[in-house]
């Protein structure tokens, strides 16, 4: 499996649904369910190690996870948060075919320079350039467009605008991107089919699976304590251990 294969999965109108994982067991289950690619989730990796997210505190844990995921028959892209050239190189050496780097709505020129340097250091790595215009506050589509174009011109292979929800805004971003547009799956938001009709090429699940797992963990423990129904269609011990 290669970087080229990963890039080929980004088809506007037929979006790649990318689940984000924090452990090998979850990744194995997703591979068995037919997913061809997974990403790491910075929140899931951070929280499962008792560390804060968004502060570049989990690179070592992320790299160890990537190296284990790379042994599976699945393409892996790593969330390296704000990132650095060294982090991107290390992710590629660990087996990642792509990285996600976020601007946290800081200086766009600095982020563009980082993208350019990463592409020079690891030309084949799929760089998904995230802008946080819609994540950190009410979105400014014009500013998102400006940043996306800067990152595209710096060599980004795709652009990511988490938090954008309105169909008109998404359509405008697709038209302006000229590279695959990645959005975040949002419960109660647009469906995969609807996002595909707008031209989206990738839909990341972000921290959704991790947060859903936490909810299921508490729900199941409470059900046992209260003598309520516990679902019986769970993976068996033997299946997981195998």
Care to describe what's here?
The chain has helices at residues 3-8, 24-32, 42-48, 59-69, 85-94, 108-121, 141-153, 167-177, 192-197, 208-225, 237-241, and strands at residues 16-18, 20-21, 37-40, 75-79, 98-102, 126-130, 158-160, 181-184, 202-204. The chain is of the alpha/beta class. The protein has one domain: TIM Barrel (Alpha-Beta Barrel). Strands 1-9-8-7-6-5-4-3-2 form a nine-stranded parallel beta sheet. The longest helix is centred in the last third of the chain and has 18 residues, at 208-225. The two termini are 24 Å apart. The relative contact order is 0.14. InterPro entries: ICL/PEPM, Pyrv/PenolPyrv_kinase-like_dom, Pyrv_kinase-like_dom_sf. GO terms for molecular function: catalytic activity. It comes from Dactylosporangium matsuzakiense.
Topology:
Layout: H1 3-8, E1 16-18, E2 20-21, H2 24-32, E3 37-40, H3 42-48, H4 59-69, E4 75-79, H5 85-94, E5 98-102, H6 108-121, E6 126-130, H7 141-153, E7 158-160, H8 167-177, E8 181-184, H9 192-197, E9 202-204, H10 208-225, H11 237-241
Parallel strand pairs: 1-9, 2-3, 3-4, 4-5, 5-6, 6-7, 7-8, 8-9
């Amino acid at each position: 499996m290669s970087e080229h294969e990963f890039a080929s999965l980004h088809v506007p109108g037929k979006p790649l649904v990318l689940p984000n994982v924090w452990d090998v067991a979850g990744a194995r289950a997703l591979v068995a369910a037919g997913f061809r690619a997974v990403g790491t989730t910075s929140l899931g990796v951070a929280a499962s190690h008792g560390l804060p997210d968004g502060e570049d505190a989990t690179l070592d844990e992320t790299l160890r996870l990537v190296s284990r995921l790379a042994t599976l028959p699945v393409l892996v892209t790593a969330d390296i948060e704000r990132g650095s050239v060294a982090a991107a190189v290390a992710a590629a050496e660990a087996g990642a075919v792509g990285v996600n780097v976020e601007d946290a709505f800081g200086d766009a020129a600095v982020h563009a320079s980082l993208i350019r340097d990463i592409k020079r250091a690891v030309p084949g790595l799929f760089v998904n350039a995230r802008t946080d215009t819609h994540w950190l506050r009410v979105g400014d589509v014009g500013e998102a467009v400006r940043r996306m174009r800067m990152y595209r011109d710096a060599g980004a292979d795709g652009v990511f605008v988490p938090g954008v929800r309105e169909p008109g805004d998404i359509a405008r971003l697709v038209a302006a991107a000229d590279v695959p547009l990645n959005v975040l799956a949002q419960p109660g938001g647009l469906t995969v089919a609807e996002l595909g009709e707008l031209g989206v090429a990738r839909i990341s699940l972000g921290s959704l699976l991790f947060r859903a797992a936490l909810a299921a963990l508490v729900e199941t423990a409470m059900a046992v304590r209260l003598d309520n129904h516990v679902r019986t269609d769970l993976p068996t011990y033997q299946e997981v251990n195998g």
